[in-house]
Amino acid sequence: MGRKGLMDVKDITVRSDSARDLLRQMKASGGFTAKKLGVSADILRRMIDDGSSLNFLSFPADIIATGTRGVVRDMVRRKWFDVVVTTCGTLDHDIARSFGSYRHGTFDADDAKLLKRGIHRLGNVFVPRKAYGELIERKMTAWLGELASEGKTDLSTSELCAELGSRLGRGSILYWAWRNKIPVVVPGITDGAVGYQLWQYSQNHKFRIDLLKDEQLLSDMVFEAKRSGALMLGGGISKHHVVWWNQFRGGLDYAVYITTAQEFDGSLSGARTKEAISWGKVKADALHVTVDGDATVLLPLLYASLIPG
Question: Which of 27, 178, 199, 290 is surrounded by the fewest CB atoms within 10 Å?
Answer without folding.
Answer: 199
